[in-house]
Amino acid sequence: MACAFFWAGGLCCLVLVRASVTVYSQEPYAGTNTGTANVASFTGAAAYDPTHLLPPPIPNPLPAMQFTQQLSSVPPPGVSVPQGGYFYGFSIEFSVINQILGINGSFLQVPFLNLMSNIQARGGSVRVRIGGNTQETATMVQTLPDGRMMEKKNSSDEYLSQMFTPPLLYTPEVLYMLANISSLVDVGWYLGIPLNDTQNLRLKIAEVAEQVLGDKLLGLQVGNEPDHQGHRPPTYSPTDYFNDFGIVDAALRADPRISSVDGKLIGPSVSGNWDLQDVWNTGFVDTYRDSLAALSVEYYPSDNCAKVLNTTDPIVDPQQIFNTYLNHTAATSIVSKYINSTLMAQSYDLPFVMLETNTASCDGFPGLSDSFGSSLWALDYGLQMASSNFTGALLHVGGTSGYYNPFTPPTTNQSTYHSWTVGPIYYSALIVAEVFGKSNASRIIDMEMNNHSIYTPGYAVYDNDTLSRLGLINYITDPSGSSDFTATLSFNAQTPTQVKVKYLVAPSVSEKSNITWGGQTFGPTFGSDGRLEGILDVQTIPCDMSANTCRIRVPAPGFALVFLHDPAGEMPESPTPVTWPTTAYTRTTKTTLGVDASVLATSNGNQGMQERLGSTSSGRKWWLEEDEPHRRKPKPNSAIHVRKRGALAFTIISCTGIVVLWLGIKVI
Ligand SMILES: *[C@@H]1O[C@H](CO)[C@@H](O)[C@H](O)[C@H]1NC(C)=O
Ligand SMILES: *[C@@H]1O[C@H](CO)[C@@H](O)[C@H](O)[C@H]1NC(C)=O
Ligand SMILES: *[C@@H]1O[C@H](CO)[C@@H](O)[C@H](O)[C@H]1NC(C)=O
Ligand SMILES: *[C@@H]1O[C@H](CO)[C@@H](O)[C@H](O)[C@H]1NC(C)=O
Ligand SMILES: *[C@@H]1O[C@H](CO)[C@@H](O)[C@H](O)[C@H]1NC(C)=O
Ligand SMILES: *[C@@H]1O[C@H](CO)[C@@H](O)[C@H](O)[C@H]1NC(C)=O
Questions:
Q1: How many alpha carbons fall within 13 Å on the CB side of residue 24?
Q2: Are 362 and 308 in contact (CB under 8 A)?
Q3: Closest atom of ligand 2 relative to the 104 alpha carbon
Q4: Nearest CA to 52 among 508, 544, 588?
Q5: Whose CA is nearest to atom 6 of ligand 4?
Q6: Core vs surface per residue 628-661: b (16+ CB within 10 A) or e
């Protein structure tokens, strides 16, 4: 038994909760910067696995560490199509939205709102897809027991159950929740229409999404990974997909509850098993041009399925492949496969979106997918996709079994003071938003810098046709400093008197938590409420006006974003997102209770409150939101704003001395 005792607005509440008590070890999270992979020793959730790999050795021969990069003041031939700061968004596995987004439309996860708000502040808006393996078997029903928004069912599909993504039922509340999120942060949504049963189409999501989300619905993906063996019969072909897409298109057009299908659908979302050209050869784009919102693909450069699914294939040792992620070829080898298709998409004036991607499918690799190396990889990969005329890419977020998550809420059995874990790859999304900014008019080119060295890639961004920003990557880990490179930027016109530089740095590509962007961080495992912490550090570097050069040092490892000029009236390096200080954003009628994220995580069905565990000695204060008791119903259409009014701090006091589980109930 544990009790929580807190002081709230003059009311003292004593809440007794029966709980079976186990302390979930958190020792490994402290982590060290050294050590080798020891995957077997960790038994907790993957998202918190402390495995560190060894950084790859310093390349021999070392590329030039001093070199000149000539810059063109006007966009050179080959620059990309205009890109938006929303380029990198997120793809969230359907089965975990109740842990990541919120329990329902009036109970939202504030760390998630903050994480989206950070991107919006830099890039203008955010794009999120709800989908993945689980979307194909998801079914909308009108209601579920106990007013729940979502319920997972036991899977009859072996692959899905192995992937821990069981079929699920959900209610329209999910769409209201998305709409409520969009009223707070400018998030646009990609959703999916299941294509696992074309005899019995389930179009309800399209009907409800159109009504509830309006223009925040970016598109409806028709079928997920049609070329993925395991989801469909082995004979399933591009022509079968073409036909099935047509069945859905026709059914939507015949549906009187749907006002328009034009510009709404997304396909083919192939995962790399089919040759894309074979899909285009079916006449897919010509036939469905009117219905299409975008063309889509999905891709993972590797997989950890042998381990996760316990197949007979050899298990991949992440240490052995770590180096393959840590050079420019990792990005170019993926993206080059799609260049024919992105050019074709341009000719049809259609966006081309990487709808789901990450370091490796089947949860990613311990020590790799959650390392600083993955930040650099995702930066280079994202900027390479943008340079090659993709128009967006979504980093996949799985459950706590994922190593690759950009962000992870605490597990159901984590103590209350544990918070969210922001993964290294989230920094990449944040930075790409800064690289492109808010204009929607940034065009980017791979500078093939340093004589094409694969260890020192660099990109130039032309915002509204003005040379504006550079992104410079150093993939090498070398604490001695002798592999830090210095790029001498040479201007053919308009040499700036000084430039500003923000660095993304960590001690090593193996590092998991000591990562800073412009001096700020999301902290270690369980360390974040979704807001950057620390003091912003932007370096000012004077240029040599007589030589028309600026010298930029990039540490090994590291990334530098060079701001060549400040757009009028806006300091791009210091965006101030609107954020929320609580852990849950709620809007209920009688009382409003701010509870921490681990409480939210209990909503997913089979685990009751009493099964949650806590731990002592946090000493951390939580904020409680208080609503006005008389305000029983929110006014329709009234703008939501964060109610700081009445926010109360309370401190958890442990009764058992070991573990505390708290539950707040405010009595009016
Ligand atoms: C907590 O949850 C994780 C992930 O589900 C599980 O691996 C671990 O065994 C659980 N710990 C306890 C003490 O129940
Ligand atoms: C939303 O979830 C919260 C927390 O579980 C609950 O208190 C509230 O009643 C729910 N609201 C609706 C409308 O179901
Ligand atoms: C949020 O969603 C709920 C559905 O649960 C809805 O009743 C409520 O009006 C929404 N709030 C706002 C401000 O849109
Ligand atoms: C791209 O198109 C060219 C010319 O049609 C063709 O030779 C090449 O194989 C294509 N590449 C891919 C990856 O499809
Ligand atoms: C991207 O599109 C632009 C504009 O059409 C084009 O000039 C450029 O060559 C394309 N890039 C690639 C890698 O295809
Ligand atoms: C950029 O594009 C987004 C989404 O397409 C739009 O909402 C926004 O208004 C655009 N911003 C500018 C500055 O044009």
A1: 22
A2: yes
A3: 1
A4: 508
A5: 340
A6: eeeeeeeeeeeeeebbeeeebebebebeeeebbb
Give me ligand 1 centre to Cα 491, in Å.
56
Q: Is the CB of 591 under 6 A from ligand 6?
A: no
As a whole number of Å, the CA-based R_g of the chain is 25
Residue closest by Cα to atom 10 of ligand 2: 104
How far apart are the CA of 134 and the centre of ligand 4, in A?
A: 33
What φ, ψ does residue 145 adopt, rounded to 5°?
Answer: -55, 150
- At 639, list the tokens: 């703008």
| Ligand 1 near 44 CB (within 6 A) | yes
Looking up tokens 């960590």 gives 506
Taking the chain (668 residues) in runs of 10, the rounded mean pLDDT of each run is 30 28 22 31 69 96 98 97 98 91 89 93 96 87 92 56 63 96 96 89 95 97 89 90 97 96 98 96 98 98 90 93 98 98 98 98 95 98 98 93 91 61 97 96 98 98 96 98 98 90 97 96 87 92 95 98 69 59 49 30 23 22 24 26 28 30 31
Structure tokens at 570: 């806006």
pTM across the whole model: 0.82
Q: Which of 97, 170, 70 shows the shortest CA–CA distance to 488?
A: 70
Residues 517, 502: contact at Cβ < 8 Å?
yes
